[in-house]
Amino acid sequence: MIDLLVVCAPGGHLTTARKLLSGFSGTYKYAVHSPKSDSLDGVEVIPVTQSDRDMRFFIQLYEAFIIIKKHKPKVILSTGAGVAVSFFIVGKIYGTKLVFVESQSRVHSISLSGKLVIFLTNRFYVRYKDLANKSPKYIYIKE
User: Domain range holding 40?
Assistant: First the structure.
């Protein structure tokens, strides 16, 4: 059992997740599609199939079931991209707490991934006050 499973795309989403985890002292793992290494900051990376709104989504959904069943995370955190969708669907089934942090580039509206997972989340964070005012579900967070 782990405290936190971080699910995100590589690049900016992963960079944001790593910033958010600075100072986190619990146990956690990353699930990232196309990881460049087997570990990040000494934390295990679990490779996940990349899905670009295609049939590979079902492979990713299956992988999410296997990973969540094996690691039993208390919380799943995602900073975005489509990989959040499959993990949040499975996480909801398992009763896992789900936290989504919207991309900093989303100033006026939330991303497609955000739109697909917002009804599953326990917490949905945005980075701009003006965006936070558009829905009671959005929580403003300073980075």
Answer: 4-140
In the chain, the amino acid numbered 114 is G
Q: What is the CATH number of the domain that holds 126?
A: 3.40.50.2000
The sign one gets for the Cα dihedral 103, 105, 106, 111 is: negative
Token pair of 7, please?
């699910």
- pTM (two decimals): 0.88
pLDDT given at position 26: 84
d(CA 122, CA 133): 18
Q: How far apart are CA 20 and CA 18, in angstroms?
A: 5
How far from the centroid of its chain's Cα atoms is residue 114's Cα? Answer: 10
pLDDT band at 105 (very low <50, low <70, confident <90, very high): low
> Which pairs count as long-range contacts for 25-29, CB under 8 Å and 24+ apart, including other chains?
26/2, 27/2, 27/3, 28/2, 28/3, 28/4, 29/2, 29/4, 29/5, 29/71, 29/73
> Around Cβ 95, how many Cβ atoms within 10 Å?
7
